Hints:
The chain is an alpha+beta fold. The protein is built from 15 helices and 32 strands. Mean pLDDT is 87; it is low at 1-68 and 77-89.
Amino acid sequence: MPAHSPPFPLPALLPRRCVRQAAHAGLPRPPGALAPCTRCDAHSSIDHGAAGIARTIDAILGKIRRVTLRRVILSAAAMFAAAAIAAKGESVQTYDAPEPGALSPRNASYDIDVRLDHAARTLSGRQTIRWRNISAQPASELQFHLYWNAWRNPESTWFRERKMARNYTAPLPDGWGAMDVTAIGVREPSGALRDLTAQMRFIAPDDGNTGDRTVMAVPLDEPVQPNETIQVELAWTGRIPRGIARTGFIEDYYFIGHWFPKLGVLEDRGWNTHQFHAPTEFYADFGVYDVRITVPAAFVVGATGRQTARTANSDGSVTYRYREADVHDFAWTASPHYVERTRTFTDPALPPVEMRLLMLPEHRGQEDRYFSAVEATLKRYGEWFGPYPYGHVTIVDPAFQSQADGMEYPTIFTGRARYLPSRSRQTPEMTVAHETGHQWWYGIVATNEFEHAWMDEGINTYATARVMEEAFPDNRWERRFFGGHLPWSFRDIPFTRLDNDRIAGYRDNSEADVPATPTFRYWPSTAAVMSYNKTALWLHTLERYLGWPTMQRILATFFQRWQFRHPRPDDFFATVNEVSGQDLTWFFDQVYRSSNTFDYGVQDLLSERRGERYRTTVIVRRYGEATFPVDVVTTFADGHRITEKWDGLDRRAIYVYDRPAQVSHVQVDPRRVLLLDTAYTNNSRTLNPRSGRAGMVWAARWMTWLQDLMLTYAFFL
Ligand SMILES: [Zn+2]
């Protein structure tokens, strides 16, 4: 560092990441041949401009000897850069460029020592956080998530929302969780620890609920300036809940997520630290995690990252050390019963990935199904969006009744297996593909799930459905009976990509919320419909409207531009517009900024004989408030077909044809581009309906369902 450097050096303000940078970093470029982004070529973006400003200011600072004045100038420069970038809508945090040689800013790094007391069901931990303020403003306090306090008392916001959703069961006496910070301080340059324990307080920024203790604020004696780093040290204890919301214990199985005091995200516009809500949970900065986990010797441990050490202790316990860089969370699991299986994913176009599967013995027979779903997703997501960068992944087969099925954390996730596996490909494959996919959409593109859960859950649901369609096409509907134990596969009913888009659950709640509402404010019982179902369906609609090659380029560009950062919805919409070459704001106004629903249909079909010819009148109607261009295809008795392109804006469109043949039928959107149409049965009309035949078809389908159900129950009589 040159002698004139200020106490908090100005960061290198790099251009936004593009494929050129990915190539520079030695990562193989995914198929789909993206061009380098225009920012790198043009050298005219605000990032390059800000970098120029930074260099100029840096030079000025070199001539100024007084530290206070340098601080003032530095702060002003930071504010200016932030304002300029915010005006472009490009950055959540001004100094979010990757550290040199790293993939991410690595501004929130955790060293944690944690000990599991199996008999007492507690954790005790000590942790050191190295936190760099990458926002444009000084930080006068720190804010932490204490997730396990969501299960500390029935008045937490999490439990309140569960009650509102009519999804509340009082925990058993050992079912409650808790997180208590017993000490916190800041390590000063002198080496002394400035104790801040007495200043800790709980806040409830979302709802003012004084019964909620999931966010802790700690005022600092000295503000942390932009780009300045501090070291925070904490001691804490945690009471492990009986399995709830995919974390906790059941007998001697543990899945430990959301388990340590974790910093919120300081954005340019202030702290973003939401309370723990029933439908949303993630948002954190990237860092390096170095975690030492001490458990009884009999336990097998799996965790985020790679195991770097194993130490046997004199008290009979064992300490496992795991490390991972460029991740924003850390989870781990322990059980004496795990059977470990390893394989390596290889592909000529992608980097290899070591896969470690921790299975419970009763699910041993499903090993191949687990691995094949991980491999299918690593391959396709790697080709479509960008390669998986960590080189390893751990898949956890959760215990029965652990409440831990299907959950994502960086480089580790839980799947879902059953004692009696399904014959269809819904589980474990669909769950495993989805959780593998979250490594891209959540893990690497680290959107704010509290506010925009559609950006991880929705994009991932859409892309997972595509993986399933390609990799596991022979998929059938299935129902499970008797508490989920007994699978029953409906061999005659295919489970299609639209089912994986969750179309069935969409229509009943399609107007439940405006998707642009922050997710933690969605109605709890229907939040998933907005985040998963509606998003997957409008993305799939966009795919059918633009074509998959364009859609793939959109997602690849978005992924590579925003990997290891925190994009917002407008960043996604801007990428769609840029890559498609169209202004699709009208579409996002419909599907994202309103709760209007789509429903196009045929209102009437008339035919009049006029001499030797027929006059056909087609009346199509927009029944819903939302608009979308649709094709109207009229077919005549002689086979002639006319396609009209209706912009779908008016309530009705009327088409009149004088032709030698009588009309046969008319269809609105016959290619079914608009998957959000809530009533597809009104989309066609036949002049002379064969009503008897239609009735037979419906009755036969209904009888098939009934017969399958009766067979299921008869099996147990
Ligand atoms: Zn998910």
